[in-house]
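Anyone? Bumping this.
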Amino acid sequence: MTRMAPSVETPVPLQGRIADFIGARVDGGAVEVSGLHRVGGGSSRENWPFDALWGNGGSRRSHALLLRRDPQDSVVSSDRDVEFNLLGALESTPVPAPRALWIDEAGNHFDRPSMILERCPGSAARSVLRDKDPLGLGLPGQVGLAQELCRLLVTVHRLDVGDAGLDGILQPPPNNPAEDQLRMWLAELDRQETAPEPQLRMAATWLGDNLPDPPERLVLVHGDFRPANVLVHEGRIEALLDWELARLGDPLDDLGWYTAPLYRQEHFIPGFWEASDFLACYEQLAGFAVEPAALKFWQVLATFRLAVIALTSVRSFREGTADRPTAPVTGIAAQALAAAIS
Amino acid sequence: MQPTPAEVITGIRRILKDVVEPSVGSDYARNRLAEVRAVLAQIDWNDSLTHLARDNSAVSDFAGQAADWVNAAPERRAAFAGLLPGLTEAQRPAVDVVEPFAVHNERSEAYSRLMVSLTDCLAAWVREHPADDGAAELLDRIRRHYARLG
């Protein structure tokens, strides 16, 4: 196999290419790009925030922007144009999402498929609900944010897929979404497995034996809904980020991901906002009862999916095509199986 | 006494945190460094070989239990015929822990493949024979063993 060096690009050449790219798309003199740097630990996209100055005379002003580029060896594959079009469709809905400005779909300008977004104010922190309180919200603020997350998820799921034009962007699943998702992640396991992964194979057998019924209505599934993917500004949610895994599917898909035992410490606040509080809030706002056996299937699938993604990272790391170190996946894989047989 | 592998790694993690990290200027590189430290902390540097040998021994036991269960009824022998040679082979005496890591690792891979096939067949058997408590219990024991690993 051909090995590629991990992405260690310096900002300077990229800065010039961004200026040229934007300059060809806006009116108003030369584009000046400043402050470009790479941030975060995103496994599926590189994130490069920067400021860009353009316009003539009094209209010349600075714009806070973000370049999102496919890494050389992504752990998830998705179509950049689908995400770009989805973000465009979400602009006319109550779902707060970043505004996508331009796309380099083929990677002609930035070597790999990329898009430029408006950079929203705020911070995203994986541990925002934990004791360390990285955004300084205080316990009441954290509980309020946790409740707002639940309301946001209901807002996403209550979108009318047809009215929002989402069914022209995202392909409806041909079968039961649970079956389709399981098949997709099993195929990914087949691709990534370099040695037998008994826990994942046993969990997959359990999943195949416990498929839930299809949902009454297909909804917009975010696909990676969690505190790490919301931008918090002055204690409130400014935007829901990272839509590359979005799809039409079962609302329990997002619920299972959010409430999976693996994420309990990150997504809930012991004694103040438990998984049961989240589910009660969701059921009340969404107007339907969550079937426990179906939720369990989606929780197990969520952990299974995470383990397969981790397996992809391990493979990339071992082959030298990624610059993120990764430990063996035995722990996550065991949790997927444990969730199944619990 | 010689320092253990875990002690050496603990020292390296401390140097990365106290000496290297403050000198790293890029946010991105600091994130990668934090991940390096986290991964170093996740590995059981002292006892990996012991755990691998113990897990292989447990699978050897399961192979014996499965072979006994299969051989107890002709219908099972027919259904699991393809697995019997592997189950028999895996019932060897407990392996010597001083064998190299690579030997244990290779055995672990073979055993994992065997257990995946066995549990797939057992799950199918249980679906078709829901009253066979012995099969369900064996399947449950193997799954619980693997769910505890890691």
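Late reply, but here is one note on the structure posted above: Confidence is low (pLDDT under 50) at residues 1-5 of chain A.
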